[in-house]
């Protein structure tokens, strides 16, 4: 078994028409075996099988297929009349045909290499180039595909008589490659060194966004619209740009303005606009100033693919360009590609067999390192916006750093840590395709747990786990985590994005996070159970709605009533059901810390799963219970509706949802006014809701339940 791999390529890169090409990370592969019985009966001893793009259109007969036609031409030049007996060529082609990504260039290089291998011709890469150039006469694609990387090339004058010979197959003759006839004569052999190439440097941070429209433009057709002669000024325009561009693309960091200007062209793109609807407008629709991360844009090869070079924001740039095509009623696929530095590679025997049987990549298995890296770039700014003294919130390291002294903790503090998830509220976010607030819920679940112990949240880390990373969704999610961190005053110092194919369904993901907070040495860790006594006052802080607990029951009630998340909420005519349910959890950190710092609070309970009944006792000593008057606070409309629609008992209501209170606080009688003042001053609407009493059978006694009827 012989395996031949050739990358696709993008030619021209704007001004370098027929001169420069960039090999890119999609590979045509041939798996070749010789001596196969089934192949002996095939024309020219060669059986072709094919998988991948072009399967429906590509001819599988040796003298009609560009790869094998090319190979036959090379073999004939060396005295062979056919392939060795029993040759089987299995083609695996992921390169889209006729889109400007050098499928024909790759096929030609693969074809010459095929002849080199089966005919044991022992040709060097430079000699292989000579043969390629007889078949595809612009050197840009074949030189890049053969040598790999970012390549400039020129082709010496060929003998016009030789060029007309029918024995040479031509990669670009409408409607399909023609020539390569078996005339019985030896075809013209290329003179030595007809093509020269040089490899240019490429800055490692530059990636290639290929926007691939769903229609083909054959290179032959795209060349037929070009003029025979050019205006001198236009030629100078291109020469000036290409001279700078080849160096500019190797400089780190890349100079976006120079590259953008350097990728302008007057020699081929303007003439090809009639073949690609909206081409001029699409090329002008992005600039480095309007689209951060963009370096330049051009037609890839003869088109219709558009190639945008960028260092970040790949998904946004791609979606912008796809939308431009959409306005022309053209749908597109897109790929984020990298330079392929290896060019043509040939492997033999066990190694080729192993690669044929198990040519597996992490990307094939569903995990995209590129997407992960792109996400990191896309969220950097949002993450950095959460920086605070002691934590610079720069991601990309192996761990998140926190300098406690710089954060104001000069004596070793007591660290408090919390970990939690968003829970099934995420299901509503999936249904609404809205991830703009669930990150706030995630932060709230953690930091509200820290602050009830009297701790100031300092850092946060999130965990985002999915089967398939949808960058746009992940970015929205992390931006909302950053928003939550800002509300809590803590820095987002790191996180984990886990792409685990098969773990979750479709676009769904799970989200968790952990927060670290500190309490100054000498300051109390709350609750201060020892200081609590009968008669202490309970103050409640309103919730914003359901917060992040009890969503399994919420969804059940909504389902039972046949409501869809897109419908207007029966409890709030200004919002949809889904948007109302996604109202983020209130973050109480800043108001509560203001009161804690004045030593006004004895304890706090964050009302989460288990509601009032389970959470209030967590802050109380064993001998004290809480007596609450349920008429003293307002139940939000959404909870009222859910309770009634689900026919939920008062007890179940108080154990499942927060009933309208996100926080319950214990304050000594003498501190009540001061605490209320501080909380109001920080924007809260505190209400006196009850008091501490001697504990009886129930730790929490609710009075005035008729109010909930
Ligand atoms: N893997 C392949 N096997 C056989 N023929 C191919 C293959 N790839 C490309 N070709 C031939 O090349 C033609 C496309 O070439 P071209 O018009 O230059 O477009 P591109 O921009 O993709 O190179 C196809 O129609 C087909 O005839
Ligand atoms: N310089 C050629 C490049 C054609 O590339 P392809 O990928 O479209 O085959 C041209 O612009 O015609």
Set out the fold topology:
Elements (H helix, E strand, L loop, with lengths): L1 E11 L3 E18 L12 E7 L13 H12 L9 E7 L9 H16 L6 H11 L3 H9 L2 E6 L4 H4 L5 E2 L7 E2 L15 E6 L6 E7 L5 H6 L7 H17 L7 H7 L6 H4 L6 H6 L9 E6 L6 E5 L3 H13 L5 E6 L7 E4 H10 L10 H16 L29 E8 L3 H8 L5 H14 L4 E11 L4 H18 L2 E9 L9 E11 L17 E6 L8 H10 L7 E2 L2 E5 H5 L7 H9 L5 E4 L4 H5 L8 E6 L7 H9 L4 H7 L4 E7 L4 H10 L5 E8 L5 E4 L6
Parallel strand pairs: 3-4, 15-16, 22-25
Antiparallel strand pairs: 1-2, 1-13, 2-4, 2-5, 5-8, 6-7, 9-11, 9-12, 10-11, 14-17, 15-17, 18-23, 18-24, 19-20, 21-23, 22-24
Helix pairs in contact: 1-2, 2-3, 2-4, 3-4, 7-8, 13-16, 15-16, 19-23
This protein binds adenosine-5'-diphosphate and ligand LJ64HWYM.
The ligand N[C@@H](CCOP(=O)(O)O)C(=O)O binds next to strand 1, strand 2, helix 2, helix 4 and helix 6.
